[in-house]
Amino acid sequence: MALAARRALRSLAESGALFCQRLCGVKTAASPSGGTAAAGGSGSAPPRKTGIAHSRFTHGNVFVTITDFEGNARAQASAGMCGFKGSHRDSKFAANAVAEQAARGAAQLGMKAVEVRLKGGFGVGKRKYLLRGFKQGGLTVLKIRDVTAIPFNGCRPPKKRRV
């Protein structure tokens, strides 16, 4: 029984490695055949045309990091880096400028399209202006995904007030 379970796990690992190889264009350690993933057997793969844009809105700033699908950061920007000071960092115009600067940095590296993952930013129109900034920076938005953390039960409430 344990031998059958081991065989099943091994076949699952190999099929997962083949799936990862097809999806990302990268060979993994568990793949059955060795070699490099690049065409022609060269040592480095060509740059990927798509990536993930992680955008985070806080109460006083806007952050955008554009990564490849392995999680390596390719371009980043924040409202403070774009020259906004004080409460201006938390505005729609700042979100637009941040997305545009990050998109231009990624476009210089050969990126054409991004999946956008938004965290926070329930202000007035900030998300819309952020997406507009990616378009102005030369990137196409493929998907928009909200990854804002939602508490299941929240924090413990304060004690009842006794008068």
Detailed description of the structure:
The protein is of the alpha/beta class and 163 residues long. It has a domain at 50-146: Nucleotidyltransferase, domain 5 (2-Layer Sandwich), CATH 3.30.420.80. The protein is 31% helix and 21% strand. The chain is built from 3 helices and 5 strands; from the N terminus they run αβββαβαβ. It has helices at 2-24, 92-108, 126-136; strands spanning 50-57, 62-67, 73-78, 113-119, 140-146. Strands 3-2-1-4-5 form a 5-stranded mixed sheet, with helices on one face. α2 packs parallel to α3. The chain starts with a helix and ends in a 17-residue tail after the last strand. The model is unreliable at 15-43 (pLDDT under 50).
Task: Classify the secondary structure makeup into a structural class.
Answer: alpha/beta
State the CATH superfamily name of the domain at 50-146: Ribosomal protein S11/S14
Assign an overall shape: globular
What is the count of β-strands? 5
In whole angstroms, how far apart are the ends?
Answer: 67 Å
Radius of gyration: 22 Å
Could you state the order of secondary-structure elements as H and E?
A: HEEEHEHE
Main sheet, how many strands, which sense, barrel?
Answer: 5 strands, mixed
**CATH-derived topology of the domain at 50-146:** Nucleotidyltransferase, domain 5
Query: How helical, in percent, are the residues?
Result: 25-40%
Number of helices: 3
CATH class of the domain at 50-146: Alpha Beta
Beta-strand fraction estimate? 15-25%
Uncertain spans, ≥5 residues at pLDDT below 50?
15-43
Average predicted local confidence, pLDDT: 79
- Read across the widest sheet, the strand sequence of neighbours is 3-2-1-4-5
CATH architecture of the domain at 50-146: 2-Layer Sandwich
